[in-house]
Amino acid sequence: MKKLFINKYTFSILGILLFFGIWTVIYFAAGQSNLIFPGPITTLKEAFTYFGDPYLYKCIWGSLSRMLIGFSISSILAIILGMIVGNHLKMKHIFNPTMIALKAVPTAALVYLLMVLVGFKNAPIYIVMVIVFPMVYEATISGYSNLDTQILMAMRVDSANALLNNFKIKLPLAFPHIALGLVSSFALSFKIEIMAEVLTSSSSVYGLGRAISVSFINQYNGLVSTFAYSFIAIAIMLIVSLIIYIVKRFIQIKSA
Questions:
Q1: pLDDT for 1
Q2: DSSP secondary structure letters along 190-247
Q3: Other beta carbons less than 10 A from residue 119's beta carbon
Q4: Are the C-beta atoms of 198 and 53 separated by less than 8 Å?
Q5: Within the chain, which residues score under 70 in pLDDT?
Q6: pTM, full prediction
Q7: Would you state the pLDDT for residue 200?
Q8: Alpha-carbon span 80 to 149, nearest angstrom
Q9: Alpha helices (runs of H) in 88-161, residue ranges in sequence order
Q10: Domains (range + CATH), the chain
Q11: Coil, helix or strand for 160?
């Protein structure tokens, strides 16, 4: 067990070193120019200077708050619909075409459509909602579909209130599946939020995506600022992904 633990984290460190190694090689291959491809040292120095600037924290909070709004609304609606369909599985065929369409539509095209429908400021929130909804919906149905048949038969024999059974028995039993869907879509939500902000780049809101877009347009020091904000966004996503991984492992162990 100890050997496995050491190997896992040793390989993770090697993976990080490999990432920076490839980055350095591309930097030298591009002619060591900040106008084309800034190197890791220059980017990291620039990124660390931003941690003393309140603007960075406003951008981080702006991205996280909009992502959380979209994620929360979409998750609640998806769980409610998933519970209804989970109790009447034939209804799944009614919603399947819509879910397939939501998953298949190009995200970039969806951003531009929502920019017209809801405006630049709110488009990222709706993008997150559209991406999260089918994932949580399908996780909820999966949870209800995998309920123990003996428990369901006992519920029918008891003939208790159906609505009460949903919240007191079915939902808690299905929650491990739902939770896995929630944590998986949560990590994706932050990436989608930043991508949507880059495309919309609304001047009336703060966000990491907007910071990346504005720094690319200005380019007062080449692409260093763009790379620095992108690196900060990647670092946050890695932290979120690590937390998500820990939560998923915990849920899987508990539900085993």
A1: 47
A2: HHHHHHHHHHH--TTS--HHHHHHHHHHH-EEEEHHHHHHHHHHHHHHHHHHHHHHHH
A3: 13
A4: no
A5: 1-9, 152, 154-163, 202-204, 251-252, 254-256
A6: 0.80
A7: 78
A8: 22
A9: 92-104, 107-118, 123-145, 149-158
A10: 53-255 (1.10.3720.10)
A11: coil
